Amino acid sequence: MDGPYEQNDNKELTGFKGICQFMAAEGVIGVLGNLLVCYVILRVKFLHNMTNYLLVNLAVADMLLCLQAVCFYLVTPACTLIAFAPVNIGVRDLFCRLVASKFLAWALAFTSAYNLCLVTLERYIAIVHPLHYARKLTTARMVTLVVMVWVISLLLSVPFLFTIQSSDDSSKVCSAVSYPHPAFPILVSLFSVFFAYLLPLTLMSLAYYKMQVTLKRQAKALNMQHARAAAYDLVIARQNLVSMLKTVLGALIVLWTLCYLATLPCLHRTEQGVFSFCGTQSYRYTRLISVLLFNFNSVINPIIYEFKYKKFRQGFKIAFCSCFKRQGGNRVMDVAMVPI
């Protein structure tokens, strides 16, 4: 989520326009992929259920995260892909506090993590406490939870607004990174890693373990009772969906871990960091690689849906292939309308 915008990084990334172009291209692919997810789910009627609406919400968060990355790397002075120098002091201050400070990147990272928590919560109640599903997860309640996730994510990122401001130097857009107190970067790093990474991932991991145990018990009981094929198929469909969501969670853990480990000792890459290596060249390269992996998580989710989510593949074909819709659309809809 950090990027090569800080003034200290300009000299480091001079001549690395190819890296900037790659990261911007990565963001464009992420925007298009998540936009495609939203289009397919909203267009195809049999995908209109609570789980998929929450996946749309997650796709919107990932799409915005990729979009801010595109805008960030296009205007980064070291990349010079697009010349950008806001003259108005108010615009410059907004740009520095919202974009260069990484406020938006962190806010959208929080949003992405906690929106995935909402998807997990919905599946957890549907599988572990099915009798309470209709009462606990009403539409109004889920809308409230979604709004709360977005608002809380913005509030948790507020400390980053105070790390960079517009520069008094006319040759620079933003000032160098500064902290109100020496303990500020340490506290914010610990706070961010805990609430954006450790807490949501721990809760989701426990929830998926409980869901997997419950589904295996249900499948075993139905198999022993020689239950009707429809009931057994429903459990299998739920297992497949949980497997897809576990893959999404696994990808998030793999691709986010390096970035948060790199963030923990150094909130920003400056020579004035708490540790001396925060301003070294090797650490900057490590941080750059971690950013590539971090942003790739928002790119890979639509790919996971395509390969691991059977109903999404069916919806994709219906949304984009008119011949498939005419020849087999009704059959697909009959199968997919079974609630999971």
Automatic annotation (TrEMBL):
Coiled coil stretches, renumbered: none
Main location: membrane
GO MF annotations, alphabetized: G protein-coupled receptor activity
Stored InterPro entries: GPCR_Rhodpsn, GPCR_Rhodpsn_7TM
Localization: Membrane
Gene Ontology CC: membrane
Pfam family, one: 7tm_1
Keywords: G-protein coupled receptor, Membrane, Receptor, Transducer, Transmembrane, Transmembrane helix
SUPFAM superfamilies (UniProt xref): Family A G protein-coupled receptor-like
Highest taxon listed in the record's lineage: Eukaryota
CDD domains, per database record: 7tm_classA_rhodopsin-like
Gene3D superfamilies: Rhodopsin 7-helix transmembrane proteins
Membrane spanning stretches: 22-42, 54-83, 103-121, 142-164, 184-209, 248-268, 288-307
Positions of the G-protein coupled receptors family 1 profile domain: 33-305
The name this protein goes by in its record: G-protein coupled receptors family 1 profile domain-containing protein
Natural source organism: Patiria miniata
